[in-house]
Amino acid sequence: MSTEMPPGDNSIVANGIRTNYLEAGSGPPVVLIHGSGPGVTAYANWRLTIPALAERFRVLAPDMVGFGGTERPPGVVYDLKTWADQVVGFLDAHGIERASLVGNSFGGAIALRVATQHPERVGRLALMGSAGVSFPLTDGLDAAWGYQPSIENMRRLLDIFAYSRELVTDELAEVRYRASIEPGIQEAFSAMFPEPRQNGVDALVTPEEDLARLPHETLVIHGREDRVVPLSSSIRLMEVIPKAQLHVFGRSGHWTQIEWAEKFNQLLNDFLAT
Q1: Strand 29-33 vs strand 99-104: parallel, antiparallel, or unpaired?
Q2: Which pairing describes strands 99-104 and 218-223: parallel, antiparallel, or unpaired?
Q3: Residue 136: DSSP 8-state
Q4: Which long-range contacts (CB under 8 A, 24 or more apart) does 176-184 make?
Q5: Which of 95, 120, 164, 189 is most deeply buried (CB count within 10 A of its CB)?
């Protein structure tokens, strides 16, 4: 598995935050919003998705504040408003009036908040293993948000995220561990979702009455064996969002975009193009 950053690693000021991002392709804009695991970056989350989408779309994948190469301004408040405002600022900085959003897990909650507050800025909406509705804190999410840096802890965490043990290599654990101990990263991460962590789940919720007014075509994707965000979360999103469709991958954990990359990419490409 290559750990090098692909071409198109850039930065831009988004709502006052110097934001690191990846860009590839041309065409209608699609913004990919990553999840909240320790050591996560836009590249780690979307490395298999970006090349496939870039054949038809202009793909932009920012590191949300607190993650990856994006700056962490002193006094920044890590909450849903900050992250949603960063996405809107990211669109503004690029002069993009309207883009489709693809959100993974925590990134799905951000995409939902942007779509409900700024519906005119969002084309289509795709949510994978998404937060955004209320659910009881899972052991997997508790472990992820409560991560303390070590190779062993990272390996255990990756075992929770992936259904297939074949994906959880020593190299991947090493790469993600190294990313999690970059200066300032663990301090920011531990500040985001302190105990009691059920509060962190609830803080990512968008009220269902707002979700019920969403006008966007919405693709909801989930792994049947997801131990981090329960399948019930996506079922509820499908029930509440008027123009939603749900696709469930069996034999898949929280990493559908990696475990079922080819099928996931085809599904997402077809949805965004129609």
Answers
A1: parallel
A2: unpaired
A3: P
A4: 176/37, 176/38, 176/39, 176/40, 176/44, 177/39, 177/149, 177/150, 177/151, 178/39, 179/39, 179/40, 179/41, 179/44, 179/68, 180/38, 180/39, 180/147, 180/149, 180/154, 181/149, 184/72
A5: 189
Q: Clarify whether 105 is annotated catalytic.
A: yes
76, burial (CB in 10 Å: exposed 0-12, middle 13-18, buried 19+) = middle
> Tens of pLDDT along 151-181?
999 999 999 999 998 888 999 999 999 999 9
- 232 labelled catalytic: no
Q: Where are the beta strands (DSSP E) in 146-224?
A: 218-223
- Catalytic entry in 226, 233, 234, 247: 226
Give tens-digit pLDDT for 88-131: 999 999 999 999 999 999 999 999 999 999 999 999 999 999 99
Model confidence over 187-220: pLDDT tens digits? 999 999 999 999 999 999 999 999 999 999 999 9
Among candidate residues 36, 100, 105, 180, the one labeled active-site is: 105
Give the helix/strand (H/E) hosting 273.
Answer: helix 261-273
Q: Give the model's pLDDT for residue 142.
A: 98
Do residues 227 and 140 make contact, with C-beta atoms less than 8 angstroms apart?
A: yes
Number of C-beta neighbours around residue 229 at 10 A: 28
C-alpha distance from residue 62 to each of 7, 59, 129, 162 (Å) = 14, 10, 19, 23
pTM of the predicted model as reported, rounded to 2 decimal places: 0.96
How confident is the model at residue 8, as a pLDDT? 56
